[in-house]
Specification:
By secondary structure, this protein is an alpha/beta fold. The protein contains 9 helices and 10 strands. Helix content is 32%, strand content 23%. The strands form 2 sheets. A 6-stranded mixed β-sheet has the order 6-7-8-3-9-10, with helices on both faces. A 4-stranded antiparallel β-sheet has the order 2-1-4-5, with helices on one face. The C terminus is likely disordered. It binds adenosine-5'-triphosphate (ATP) and magnesium ion (MG).
Amino acid sequence: MTAVTPTTSDDEPILSLRGISKKFGAIQALSDVSLDIYPGEVVAIVGDNGAGKSTLVKVLAGVHPASSGTICYRGDEVSLANPTDARDLGIATVFQDLALCDNLDVVSNLFLGRELGAGALNEVEMEQQTWALLRQLSAKIPSVRTPVAGLSGGQRQTVAIARSLIGNPSIVVLDEPTAALGVAQTAEVLNLIEHLRERRHGIVLVSHNMADVQAVADRVVVLRLGRNNGDFAAADVTYEDIIAAITGATDNAVSRRAGMTGATLTRAKEGLSS
Ligand SMILES: Nc1ncnc2c1ncn2[C@@H]1O[C@H](COP(=O)(O)OP(=O)(O)OP(=O)(O)O)[C@@H](O)[C@H]1O
Ligand SMILES: [Mg+2]
């Protein structure tokens, strides 16, 4: 197995998943999956369609409790039986559809369901906290009183991420945060992820985009057919290593590729002899 040393001085993971399996009827979406999440580290989850990435996100979010396996939070075994369990533990998830209310402004979206003020809403305080959060993220939102329908894709993603930070979670899980974004907006979201890392959140980034993964990830965890198929320190892994683990060119690429270079691998995939 590729030895992975956390990139931070904290040796204790915030969250450790071991032997996680999830069945949907006859479909085995996850089998014996392990994952560690460290503070101040971006761990990318990559894999082909159907590899189990979103299912793993939903296990972390308490949306789909695992069928078996153990989850430890700072060393203590916990249960993520529902979204409230996850939120109470400090695991915030930004799902791909963002779930923003288009007709509401930024402040209302951030505080939806947990408005400040008893009886009368404390709009001033909520607005101040919204600006404070956006400033911390160096986010570029022109006004917090415009309906989010009028914001760009990147700004909407920013609002969804800012919303997830209310309550100061220890872990932020982002499912394909740049999938629908252009180049400049993607750069903004990647900057934002770096801000989250500086603030010592543990970040889980699910992405199909290898450029994004290589730009911000500290560690890359590969899922293939619902199983772990690689856990790499981002600094040491090549694009070809990751693709080989995703496609199964190196089955159980948890062990290093047997001396295959990127070029020979490409030739092998194209059916060329060397
Ligand atoms: N609610 C569900 N009910 C039944 N099967 C499901 C459910 N959710 C996921 N699956 C199945 O579990 C497997 C893993 O799906 P999952 O959505 O986790 O993959 P993914 O890696 O996120 O793929 P993609 O890249 O396409 O988003 C697939 O075979 C999928 O059909
Ligand atoms: Mg998915």
